[in-house]
Amino acid sequence: MNSNSTDGMKSNLGEAGSHLKQAARDSGDAIKSAAGAAADELRLGKANVKADLADSALAGIAAAEQAGGAAREQADALMDKGRDLLDSAADLIRERPLASFGVAFAAGWIIAKLARSGDK
């Protein structure tokens, strides 16, 4: 074997080793960069989730407040209808007092009969 061939082979193997070392360093750097980028993305994702949850909580609170207002509106409407019904009954009693007394008497008699028959 020729000394030039041996020297050339050693030179090429040395160069291949250097390239392998550089490739290993580059791989390590890429992994570190990827891990750093992943950590940054996780932090950003965590912040986004917290913000979305906070927005959801605020929207839920606003909905609950509006539900209370809607319930008050419904109660007010029901009270108004009750007042209107009482006013209509009062007007009817004023217009036809005798008929109103007869209806009230009959209703009382029926309720009393039903109550007595339920006791037996």
Number of helical segments with 4 or more residues? 2
Task: State which percent range the strand residues make up.
Answer: under 5%
- Anisotropy-based shape: rod-shaped
Rg from C-alpha positions?
45 Å
- pLDDT averaged residue by residue: 87
State the domain count. Answer: 1
Q: Tell me the structural class.
A: mainly alpha
Biggest sheet features: none
Query: Which residues form runs of ≥5 with pLDDT under 50?
Result: none
Helix share of residues? over 70%
What is the H/E order? Answer: HH
The termini sit apart by 129 Å
The total of beta strands comes to 0
Short description:
With 120 residues, the chain is mainly α. 97% of the residues lie in helices and 0% in strands.
Give an overview in words.
- This protein is an all-alpha fold and 120 residues long.
- It has one domain.
- The chain has two helices and no strands.
- It has helices at 3-95, 97-119.
- The radius of gyration is 45 Å and the shape is rod-shaped.
- The mean pLDDT is 87.
Features:
120 residues; mainly alpha; 2 helices; 0% strand
Show the helix and strand layout.
Elements: H1 3-95, H2 97-119
